[in-house]
Amino acid sequence: MPSTPWSIEDYQPQADDGIRVLIIHDMEGLSGQDDPSSFDFGTDLYPMGQELLAADINAVIDGLFAGGATEVLIADGHGSGNPEPDLRADLLDPRARQIIRDEPFDTYFDLPESEAIDAVAVVGMHAKTGSRGFASHTFTLGIDLLINGHSITETELVALSWGRVGVPVIFASGDDRLAGDLATMPWIEYVTVKEATAADSANLRPLIEGRADLRAGAQRAVENLTSAKAMRVNTPIFASLHAVPPASLRFLDGIPGVEYEDDTLTFVTDDMRAAYDGLVEIVGAATVGYLSLLQEVVRDRPDGDEIMAAFRAALSQRWFDQESGRYERPTPTAGGTSGPGRYHGYR
Ligand SMILES: [Zn+2]
């Protein structure tokens, strides 16, 4: 394994054609937000979450332009389940443009391969799994991602993706725990908008004060663009997924030929994109662990025994149908075949 997970590179922005900044936003690290239901589509508090999101982003946009940005693009990194972007276009500063495509795209990894950007700002982010931040997680529930043995935040994942093309992350906002996680990126202008007291509660800073800091930090981030650093992964890349509840990889324990130890599956590759794509596949496997919680939920219900009996009967029936040639397995639809439409990021 390389002795350091990544290298820090000096940055020479090509600013003669203007400064294009990409904002990638999440929805857990917002000012004025201390209830997790505010980032879940369909809840009573979600519309308020959308307003908080737009307000933080607008403060950052204003600061980026004040610092010298000539163009600001926005991509959704949250994925609340809302078919529309979490960021409402009618609330957004009209100087900025949301990236909307007619094909699905991955906000973290497809954009560096297709957009020319001078710097990246991340807004409304959360600490990594295990950091005891507000809604702390990495990618999804119970997932801890490691690159060359170092557990990373989604902000570092964004930096390593853009580091492939030598572009730095210059600004981030979120809670005090993410501030601690990002000691790895000291050049970032970081704004702490709240203090996590648990994964589902936080002490809030006054809104006006926090948003003024968002604006000022974003301005400084662009003004100091030349002192920003790009993060390039060191190879070979040891990519690991460490699963904690409610996810699990324990079904891999004892399987020969699998690099698995202490709830962690590791593979080696030379390419950051391949590392990410592989980790995403393992996320799919680890989230199978969620189903043991489903079993607990069913068992605790008054009709739990009935449901489990129906499940055992269905298992037998599926076996009989398969062995009798009566069962036709549905063909899996390849990812992203939802057809032409309007896509705003995530996956
Ligand atoms: Zn999110």
Describe the structure.
- The chain has seven helices and 14 strands.
- The protein has two domains: 8-232, 3-Layer(aba) Sandwich (Rossmann fold), CATH 3.40.50.10780; 235-322, no CATH class.
- Helix 1 runs parallel beside helix 4 (207-223).
- With 347 residues, the protein is of the alpha/beta class.
- The two termini are 30 Å apart.
- The strands form three sheets. The chain has a seven-stranded mixed sheet, sandwiched between helices. Strands 7-6-12-14-13 form a five-stranded antiparallel sheet, with helices on one face.
- The relative contact order is 0.17.
- The model has no long low-confidence stretch (mean pLDDT 94).
- It is globular, with a radius of gyration of 22 Å.
What is the helix tally?
7
Could you tell me the CATH topology label of the largest domain: Rossmann fold
Please give the order of strands in the largest beta sheet: 4-3-2-5-8-9-10
Tally of individual domains = 2
Which sheet architecture does the biggest sheet show?
7 strands, mixed
Rg over alpha carbons: 22 Å
Q: What would the keywords be for this entry?
A:
347 residues; alpha/beta; Rossmann fold; 2 domains; seven-stranded mixed sheet; five-stranded antiparallel sheet; 7 helices; 14 strands; binds zinc ion
